[in-house]
Amino acid sequence: MSTVAAQWSATPDGKAWEGALRHEEWVRTNLEKWSKSLGFRYTPQEEIELRLDKVREGMSRKGIEALLVIQKMDYFYLSGTTQDALLFVPLDGHPLLMVKRELERAKVDSPLDRVVGFESPQELPGLIGDHWGRLPETLGLEFDVLPVREYLTYGELFPQSRLVDSSSILKHARKIKTAFEVEMMRKAGQISRKVFEEARGFIQKGKTEIEVGGMIDLTAKRYGHEGLARVRSINYEAYTWHVLSGPTGGIVSQSDSPMGGLGVSPAFPVGGSLKSLQADEPILVDFLCVYHGYMVDTTRMFSIGRMPKKFVAGYDAMRRIHDAVLKDTRPGANCQDLFRKSVHLADELGYGESYLGPPGLQTTFVAHGIGLELGEFPYLAEGHDYPLEVGMVFSLEPKVVFPGEGAVGVENTVVVTEDGYEVLTPVDEEIFEV
Is the whole model's pTM more than 0.85, yes or no? Predict the structure, then answer.
């Protein structure tokens, strides 16, 4: 019988499959080859080992004996799977991936050689003890995202272990992107370029913001965009795109950004709305492209006909700020100093009052780190007094808001290189006139 299709042969009672292929067997024998033919990229073993080494360096510095990694993007980073799982990482010895669902897919996804199943959290101490020979005296958990109830549960499961916060270890390991990660982000940037170019064809007078946003999403998904914005936060929700036209560009909402848009209801008061696009108004398109988990952020300006001179001048000013910050982007450049430079230049150009948001509602960063999640390190922001390093990736987004009228801005995602930076979002920066 074929390993792909089961053969139907009813028993006398008409209720059974005869010789039906088990799901586990099909996954083991067919899934990897089939999924690769559809574009899947699995994380190589040497890549996982490189990442584990970075995390173990942080564990050693903080004197943490072992981690239990519970947050999905953290254990994806260290194992290559996002199946429902937990990852035990000892300072010395092999990691143990414990999978609740789905075990066989996790074994295909992950290059780790110690992958086991479990059904109940009560099994975790036994699995870890059998694997490592003992239970850790100090066990790190990601306190920044760990619900209180789960924290208490882990305290009961590991009463002999001192539970400590390992969030900073994982966040600081993830802030330096590997060559593999940058490759994924370059691919996302190439998808972004295609999306912005094709958007000329469907940004039209009379179409609503949310309708255009849906067309952006559909276009991007044809090229492999995953469509899921991941944020290391509670209660933060967003589309992977903003389409803000005219007055909606001047509206601030829940997110910590210069503008938030109107949204479609109080239940989701952010992003595109049912407002129709009009001629001769600024149309800001902010698109977050996701490829194999990795995100890049791009903002460009569109107009149907000619954008009024006021907004053209504002956009030119934001591009000047963008270029001035990039001119000083190199290993060793201070993140806080780069932010302050952007604020000083906005003042000089006459846009300080509404730079990065309306007065009283301005954001305190001009760039945020990005990767598997929004809001990774580094930030070009007040209070972020540390240097850029090779491999850091951030999205630089100088924007200015004109309350009640609109907003303009530009955004690119860049990686810090040995001699400066590389733009990962190679989209034309001129205003797209349609």
Answer: yes
